[in-house]
Design a protein that fits this description.
Shape: globular
Structural class: mainly beta
CATH superfamily of the largest domain: Single-stranded right-handed beta-helix, Pectin lyase-like
Number of strands: 43
Largest sheet: 29 strands, mixed
CATH topology of the largest domain: Pectate Lyase C-like
CATH class of the largest domain: Mainly Beta
Strand content: over 45%
Radius of gyration: 23 Å
Length: 504
């Protein structure tokens, strides 16, 4: 295991309780999770100092650190670099190659997140998650902090036993303390790998903090899950003022437990119902199968600086979803998934608890990669979908970066805005509006830059009998570097009742 020793003003600091090491310029290198191996393909230095790189178990290598100002990144591969790309390319990174090393700079003045995917030769991606310095770190020993490894909980951080009941005990104590003291109680997950199964229920005014070397890892045994019901790793049900945060990891172990994406032991990693004032910040969600985050029937929420990595060859592992919720924001995040990166739904085909309109939700400043749909809405529109915004999104790859797929429910979908979208590689088609079961209107595409038309060599607006698509505006749509002035330029195919489509 790689253990970095970093100098700070020529003083070497050894921190025994955690493998985190403070770097110059207030940087912190996050260690290799105990259940993961050192990357076989890459090493990384930040400002000349080695930082850990680990194998994610699903092909990708990962390095994580925090920094401020400007830092120089040096990636060294196990062979000479013949080809390379740094995504998002729109960020304009300028790299120098010398033998096996690739060097470039990053800055905290970048408007989007410094979450990068580096492709070298034929190796799979190296993912670099560079965050700002962590703030609001709970101080053990203070009142209202409940460490799950200490008395009376004694959860074991060696993955030897299921910790659910011990964590739930801490949640109950934190909630009781919050009720008495009028401020949140904090459940503290210290360094270690804690085995969990489904249904860790949080409560109102409870903050769940995952320290940087903490891992909540799902059991690798199918028999530890109740496969007869839909379940979640962490649920927020009828709560208010709940927060999940910290630089720790929630690892779903799906690739080790499941034979396929249809395996009945799949689950949503974090699910809310009927809740308000929610925050999910900073964590890394790794190898979860089913949806990673689904904010359902909830209001006033923020999901920020969350990193998601799931298998890209499996379906149903959506990244950032909202269902029948309102007034929420997903921002400064990363998702590499096999299914939708971001999806807005009004109702559910499978979950009777999810009812109601979805509106006033924003996804902004995100970096995405998907083998399916990128920013999608319209599916399961049993209720109205409106005032949905996707902006400042960078796609490394997407089969369909932007899609409104109106089916399974006939309520209208309207006031949808796509702004400042860059897709560096398009698999199938860049834009698709599919109006199967209801009307779509007042749709905006503004400042869109697509690398190509995809394998279909067309963009598509499809309307089935009895419905219509109207008031669609394309403002500064570029494909292959060329501004699209009309339907023909954009290779748009209109099928059915399509009206009032404007290009400018």
């Amino acid at each position: 295991m790689l253990k970095p020793h970093i100098g700070l003003l020529k003083v070497v600091l050894f921190i025994s309780l955690s493998m985190n090491v403070m770097l110059a310029s207030l940087e912190t290198a996050y260690s290799i999770p105990p259940h993961c191996d050192t990357s076989k393909f890459f090493t990384v230095k930040v400002d000349g100092r080695s930082v850990p790189v680990f194998d994610s178990k699903i092909s990708k290598s990962i390095t994580r650190f925090s920094f401020s100002g400007t830092s120089r990144i040096e990636v060294t591969a196990i062979e000479d670099i013949e080809s390379h790309r740094i995504f998002p390319g729109a960020y304009g990174y300028r790299a120098q190659v010398k033998g096996r090393s690739l060097t470039f700079d990053i800055s905290d003045e970048q408007s989007g997140p410094n979450y990068l995917a580096v492709k070298i030769n034929d190796f799979d991606y190296l993912l670099i998650f560079a965050d700002p310095p962590e703030k609001d770190i709970p101080q053990l020993g203070n009142e209202g902090i409940f460490d799950i490894s200490q008395e009376p909980y004694l959860a074991k951080g060696d993955f030897s036993e299921i910790a659910n009941q011990k964590i739930i005990h801490a949640v109950e104590d934190a909630h009781a303390w919050a009720v008495v003291n009028g401020k949140p109680g904090i459940v503290y997950v210290p360094p270690g790998v804690f085995k969990i199964t489904e249904d860790l229920h949080l409560k109102s005014s409870v903050h769940l903090y995952l320290s940087p070397d903490a891992v909540l890892r799902a059991s690798t045994k199918v028999e530890d899950f109740n496969v007869r019901k839909k379940h979640y790793l962490i649920s927020i049900d009828n709560c208010e003022n709940v927060r999940i945060y910290g630089r720790g990891i929630i690892d779903g172990s799906s690739s080790l437990r499941m034979e396929s994406y249809k395996d009945p032991s799949r689950y949503t990693a974090i699910q809310s119902y009927d809740s308000e004032n929610l925050k999910i910040e900073d964590i890394l969600l790794l190898d979860n199968q089913e949806w990673n985050i689904n904010i359902a029937t909830s209001t006033q929420f923020l999901v920020e600086r969350v990193k998601i990595l799931s298998r890209t060859d499996w379906k149903w592992n959506d990244g950032f979803d909202a269902s029948s919720s309102c007034y929420g924001t997903f921002r400064m995040g990363f998702a590499m998934t096999g299914d939708d990166n971001a999806c807005a739904k009004a109702g559910s085909k499978w979950d009777p608890r999810i009812k109601g309109d979805i509106h006033d939700i924003v996804w902004e400043n995100m970096v995405f990669w998907t083998n399916a749909r990128g920013c999608k809405t319209g599916m399961q529109s049993y209720y109205q979908t409106y005032n949905i915004t996707f902006k400042d999104i960078h796609f490394i790859f997407a089969d369909n970066p932007m899609e409104i797929d109106h089916k399974d429910g006939n309520a209208p979908v309207y006031n949808i805005s796509y702004q400042n979208i860059v897709a560096e590689e398009v698999g199938e088609r860049g834009i698709w509006l599919n109006c199967k079961d209801g009307n779509i209107y007042n749709i905006e595409f503004k400042n869109i830059n697509l690398a190509g038309f995809g394998s279909t060599d067309e963009n598509l607006i499809t309307v089935h009998d009895g419905y219509s698509v109207r008031d669609v505006r394309f403002d500064d749509l570029y494909i292959e570097g060329r501004k699209i002035q009309n339907k023909s330029d954009g290779k748009f195919v209109f099928e059915g009742d399509v009206s009032d489509v404007a290009f400018k």
